[in-house]
């Protein structure tokens, strides 16, 4: 098997993490776009959500991750027992995740489901690929919020669709590769065609935001319905 070599160096992220809620057991944050969830092996990729949070909440751990370019809601466990409980909720798929995204072009259907298995391919790293033979099952729902045109500085009209994305599974790059498969990549996505539409190359970030996260608080057993409005 080919050895995976990660040459990615994250540019400095000057945006701060927004703390939305915290108690003795967990914290809810809004991750800025352009910040790693976990520090990389390369010392230049030390800055991350976990690196910043462990200074404030010693012993905290990440229950789930968001891609480097994705912004939005993350729940952080403040001890091992809470981490185990929350990880179980994620693995049993009882956690509801809703993302806001801008897709290139105008979708024909108002809603739908993308069911396509996703596999790692060391030869293509860091890209994932759709593969029914070796891939892990992956399923995403989408719902159109609006179709519109964005006028660029040169007068070009960029056709975009604002959608809500609801992943049932949590595969790496799932929403990005599923939207590409749909024929409408996420605007600003450098890996899966989100910079190819004329005018899209000017996009400053990946237009994907984790806007809702519903889970059960491990101690109070109350249903937490966290929401954070998309910045785009």
UniProtKB/TrEMBL annotation:
<dbReference type="InterPro" id="IPR006224">
    <property type="entry name" value="PsdUridine_synth_RluA-like_CS"/>
</dbReference>
<dbReference type="InterPro" id="IPR050188">
    <property type="entry name" value="RluA_PseudoU_synthase"/>
</dbReference>
<dbReference type="InterPro" id="IPR006145">
    <property type="entry name" value="PsdUridine_synth_RsuA/RluA"/>
</dbReference>
<feature type="domain" description="Pseudouridine synthase RsuA/RluA-like">
    <location>
        <begin position="25"/>
        <end position="180"/>
    </location>
</feature>
<dbReference type="InterPro" id="IPR020103">
    <property type="entry name" value="PsdUridine_synth_cat_dom_sf"/>
</dbReference>
<dbReference type="Pfam" id="PF00849">
    <property type="entry name" value="PseudoU_synth_2"/>
</dbReference>
<dbReference type="GO" id="GO:0004730">
    <property type="term" value="F:pseudouridylate synthase activity"/>
</dbReference>
<protein>
    <submittedName>
        <fullName>Ribosomal large subunit pseudouridine synthase</fullName>
        <ecNumber>4.2.1.70</ecNumber>
        <ecNumber>5.4.99.28</ecNumber>
    </submittedName>
</protein>
<dbReference type="GO" id="GO:0160151">
    <property type="term" value="F:tRNA pseudouridine(32) synthase activity"/>
</dbReference>
<keyword id="KW-0413">Isomerase</keyword>
<keyword id="KW-0456">Lyase</keyword>
